[in-house]
Design goal:
Blueprint: H1 3-32, H2 37-48, H3 58-61, H4 64-81, H5 85-116, H6 121-130, H7 136-146, H8 151-181, H9 188-214, H10 225-242, H11 246-260, H12 269-289, H13 293-296, H14 299-324, H15 334-337, H16 343-355, H17 360-389
Length: about 400
């Protein structure tokens, strides 16, 4: 390797060293204070990124796509692993009722509220659907940091595992409705959503079934690290190649393994063991990709959108929990616990911007700006809710 090639690696290696040390500092500070690690890592990324001191070289930022897919697929495996038969028997009704209620109420309430404050109904419908998206990685890490256990946490993990699927359906319906309101013909978006969800579930079953039978044989009762990594990358790679949701595919693989691998004692121990370094880089680079200036550009419409989403999550969580017969003291806590919002929302906004180019600026500015807000305050709300439920 030549001197020029090695010289170009220096800033990348320095950046990686700094990012891992930032992760260590965030982890330590999070353990000793009430501050969420996710928020601290995102804040580090914002300060070090292009919107701040611009300390992270482009070569390191280019890894964000790879790291985000890897980290989120690992999270999906762990969330799917939470859907074991015992959890579904005990909390399946609550998971289904709360996830459907919170997605439905969020989409309808945010859309109606934005329409009431003057936004055209087509754009309001699309933004209402985008507001349903959550942040599985941030929510999962907030739960882990809280140290809380019990029925509320089990139900919350199950909701996070499936609510983005309902959100994708809501988004497809909203786009079709918006196209109809604008005089265009819709329908393709619904077909695409059905193919993406159905394809991800089919891929998860196709990979999960043999994985449940074959993994954990070389080291009895526990898959090896190489087995775990191989399965994560295989799932993510095939999902991207087939253009289906790698989140839903990973969740399905995890659910199949935890329910079918009778010989496993700790099916996802190795993923839990190696996940944190990937998460550190993912959250810091996610923060570096955020533009805090978007918050200042939101104005009254952005404040209305944020307030409507918070209120809708509270109402939807309470309604679903009440329908499911959840304990009274937990009903108002599901909404705050599900406030984090991240990349799924931005992905929806990018699709909507392509479908409605004349409304792209409004959709992207509102979504990206409020994503910065909910990325920063959402994990704190999740930690507060799960700790309050455990009292």
């Amino acid at each position: 390797m030549g001197h020029v090639e090695t010289a170009t690696l220096a800033p990348v290696m320095l950046a990686l060293g700094g990012l891992f040390l930032a992760g260590l500092a965030a982890d330590t500070l999070g353990r000793r204070t009430a501050l969420p690690r996710v928020t601290l890592l995102l804040a580090c990324g914002i300060v070090a990124g292009g919107g701040g001191l611009d300390l992270i070289p482009q070569a390191a930022q280019d890894w964000y796509g790879f790291l985000s897919v890897t980290a989120l697929t690992m999270v999906a495996f762990l969330l799917g692993g939470a859907l074991d038969a015992g959890t579904l028997a005990a909390h399946g009704r609550a998971i289904l009722a709360i996830s459907l209620a919170i997605v439905g109420v969020t989409a309808l309430a945010v859309a109606a509220g934005l329409w009431a404050v003057g936004l055209d109904p087509a754009t309001a419908a699309v933004l209402g659907a985008i507001a349903t998206a959550t942040a599985p990685a941030a929510t999962q890490d907030a739960i882990r940091q809280s140290g809380a256990r019990g029925g509320f946490v089990d139900t919350l993990r199950g909701i996070v595992a499936i609510d983005d699927a309902w959100g994708m359906v809501a988004f497809a319906l909203a786009v079709v409705a918006a196209q109809a309101l604008l005089g265009a013909t819709g329908g393709q978006m619904l077909a695409d959503a059905a193919r993406e969800i159905g394809g991800a579930l089919a891929l998860g079953l196709a990979l999960g079934w043999p994985a449940a039978m074959l993994t954990g044989r070389l080291s009895p009762g526990e898959p090896l690290q190489t087995e775990a990594l191989g399965l994560v990358f295989l799932t993510a790679g095939l999902a991207i190649w087939l253009e289906v949701s790698f989140l839903l595919a990973g969740m399905t693989v995890g659910a199949v393994i935890v329910n079918r691998a009778r010989h496993h004692e700790r099916a996802f121990h190795e993923i839990e063991h190696i996940q944190w370094p990937f998460m550190v880089l993912f959250f810091v680079l996610a923060g570096a990709s955020l533009d805090p200036g978007k918050l200042a550009a939101l104005g009254g419409l952005g404040a209305a959108y944020a307030a409507l989403r918070v209120g809708a999550r509270m109402l939807g969580g309470w309604l679903g929990a009440r329908l499911a017969g959840a304990p009274r003291r937990e009903r108002w806590l599901y909404g705050p616990a599900l406030l984090p919002q991240a990349g799924v929302a931005v992905g929806m906004a990018l699709v909507a911007a392509q479908e409605f180019p004349d409304r792209a600026e409004t959709i992207l500015t509102l979504t990206i700006g409020t994503t910065v807000l909910f990325e920063l305050i959402g994990p704190a709300a999740t930690i507060w809710a799960v700790r309050r439920a455990g009292r």
